[in-house]
Amino acid sequence: MAQQRPQYTQYFFNNYLLNPAVTGIENYTDVKAGYRSQWTGLNGAPVTSYLTINAPLGKEFVQGDASSFSAGGGENPFSRSFTQEYMAAPPHHGIGATVITDRAGPITQTNIDATYAYHLGLTERLNLSVGVSAGFMRTSLNTSEITLETALDPAIANGNNSQFQPDLGVGAWLYSSNYYFGISAQQILPQSLYLKSTSIDVIKTVPHYFFTAGVKLFVSDDLTLMPSVLVKQINPVPLTYDLNMKLAFRDNFWIGGSYRHADSFGAMAGFYLSSFLNVGYSYDVTTSALNTVSNVSHELVIGILLNNLYKVTCPRYSF
């Protein structure tokens, strides 16, 4: 009994993976590619890779705030002064797409989804967005990687070892200059997967629920602490949570640490290299019983900022 979707240590670097309401939150096209090798050294351990892209729609948001943010980068979005001068984003739409492949042992799951969100200013300093993701999930079983007691096991010999199922998710995101709250659900259309050609249920998908929150705490004009939390509810798995702390030096680089309940501790670092490129890396140390066979997990995320009109190097509306 375990979660059916991948887990991420650097989820806060790309909250879009967990919540479609983040679609189009920044006024540039956000492209991210990620790779996670979990429980390195354990044969058949999960390996996850993904590509995401999302962009805003709405001229007033994309091009209409020149007076509040000058070309060439302007004020550091992680600074206290930016927070004091922050104004809610104009109402706008967001569209995007995700491709996620997760392989664990002989089972590979690929999700391809399109996303949409609408962002609305509730007050002068507060936004609310709601979003939806829709697509399909492909689950495949590589029978060549399975050792059978008999040469032809009827459970898989003539089964449906590669199947497509619909995929649907929803979410909401409340955000201001120095805090955010998000709630989302993935895989909300339960599906039955069949390995046999009969009608016996072998695997059932279940909904995954996520709650996220984060805040900015200013140490100085150059240093900003950003604690965040992720709570996951997946039946019948016990409630789990991640605690994270990130320290950013202006909009140049950040370092951080994480704790995943009953599973691991992590160390992280990231660099905002330019208005086109940023990168993040995390190293998890396993604390669960699996540490007898694997001690570490690795995760790398590369971000590309396209159509970045104001040449920002880090996010303005998410962190």
Describe the structure.
3% of the residues lie in helices and 51% in strands. With 319 residues, the protein is mainly beta. The chain has one domain (11-306): Porin (Beta Barrel), CATH 2.40.160. A 14-stranded antiparallel β-barrel has the order 1-2-3-4-5-6-7-10-12-13-14-15-16-17. It has a two-stranded antiparallel sheet with strand order 8-9.
Q: Which helices and strands occur, and which strands form pairs?
A:
Layout (H helix, E strand, L loop, with lengths): L28 E9 L9 E11 L1 H5 L16 H6 L6 E13 L2 E15 L5 E15 L20 E14 L3 E8 L5 E2 L9 E2 L3 E8 L1 E2 L4 E12 L2 E13 L3 E8 L3 E9 L4 E10 L9 E11 L13
Antiparallel strand pairs: 1-2, 1-17, 2-3, 3-4, 4-5, 5-6, 6-7, 7-10, 8-9, 10-12, 11-12, 12-13, 13-14, 14-15, 15-16, 16-17
In short:
The chain has 319 residues and is mainly β. It is built from two helices and 17 strands. The longest helix has 6 residues, at 80-85.
Any low-confidence stretches, pLDDT <50, length ≥5?
none
Q: Identify the strand order in the major beta sheet.
A: 1-2-3-4-5-6-7-10-12-13-14-15-16-17
The coarse overall form would be globular
Q: What is the CATH class name?
A: Mainly Beta
The helix content, as a percent range, equals: under 10%
Give the strand tally: 17
Q: Which class do the helix and strand fractions yield?
A: mainly beta
Largest sheet: 14 strands, antiparallel, barrel
The separation of the N and C termini measures 32 Å
Helix count, per DSSP?
Answer: 2
- What is the domain total for the residues? 1
Summarize the helix and strand pattern as letters: EEHHEEEEEEEEEEEEEEE
Q: Specify Rg, calculated over alpha carbons.
A: 21 Å
Q: Tell me the CATH superfamily.
A: monomeric porin ompg
